[in-house]
Amino acid sequence: MVVIREKGIICELDDAAPSSSQVVAANPLAKVPTLILDDGRALYDSSIIVEYLDGLVATPKLIPEKFEERIEVKRWEALGNGIMDAAVAISHENREPKETRKGPDFYAKQQRKIDAGLATMEKDLNDEEFCHGDTFTLADIACGCTLICVDIRLPKMDWRKHFPALARHLARIVKRGSFNIL
Ligand SMILES: N[C@@H](CCC(=O)N[C@@H](CS)C(=O)NCC(=O)O)C(=O)O
After folding, report:
1. What mean pLDDT, rounded, does the chain reach?
2. Residue 181 belongs to some domain of the structure
3. In angstroms, what is the span from residue 36 Cα to ligand 1's centroid?
């Protein structure tokens, strides 16, 4: 959704649940996000969707074309996706009845991924204005969405205390109009 806004693409946004008939009909994996194109084809997962959107509209370029830079931006994306997967796994587990929950090892394993992932983002961002290079890229979108996801899924996690560069970065990038929809 942020990429769609950054690119100024006209697109209908539907807050459909992964298990809804609309998503299931379009995506055999029954996951969101799923992008349904004008010709009816569907694209998933988010990595493919953002790559498609970045190629569809030339500017602003969010995934650099140069090989090494592209890989670096996609590494940020993968890091964000991994942290979000772990945060989602914890919050889903919390919805299970207490008696059938997986237990402390499961929670510790997911939390380690989140802590180490955020520590890597903090180190790599350092005191720079952008996650990669000197322009806003998909790396910043991945970083911002990850931090917002952690706030939503794990509201008790006080990550700002440990990761001041990330806290600063999130405060800066949510001022962009493209993040208003989250
Ligand atoms: N790596 C995927 C993750 C997508 C994902 O796991 N979405 C969750 C919602 S946060 C979902 O649809 N879960 C339903 C399911 O796994 O059955 C992406 O980036 O698109």
Report:
1. 96
2. no
3. 16
Q: Rounded CA gap, 54 and 32, in Å?
A: 19
Residue 36: which H helix or E strand, with range? strand 35-36
Mutate to test the pocket of ligand 1, among 14, 20, 32 (most ligand atoms within 8 A of CB): 32
Q: What is the CATH number of the domain that holds 154?
A: 1.20.1050.10
Same domain (yes/no): 116, 169: yes
Q: Specify the number of domains making up the chain.
A: 2
Mean pLDDT of 102-118: 97
8 A C-beta contact, residue 84 and residue 146: yes
What single-letter amino acid sits at 152?
I
Residue 131 pLDDT? 98
Looking at the fold, whether 48 and 95 belong to one and the same domain comes out as no
Task: Return d(Cα 27, Cα 44) in angstroms, integer.
Answer: 7
Evaluate if pTM is beyond 0.85.
Answer: yes
Site residues for ligand 1, CB cut-off 6 Å: 18, 30-33, 45-46, 81, 88
| pLDDT interval class at 182 (50, 70, 90) | low
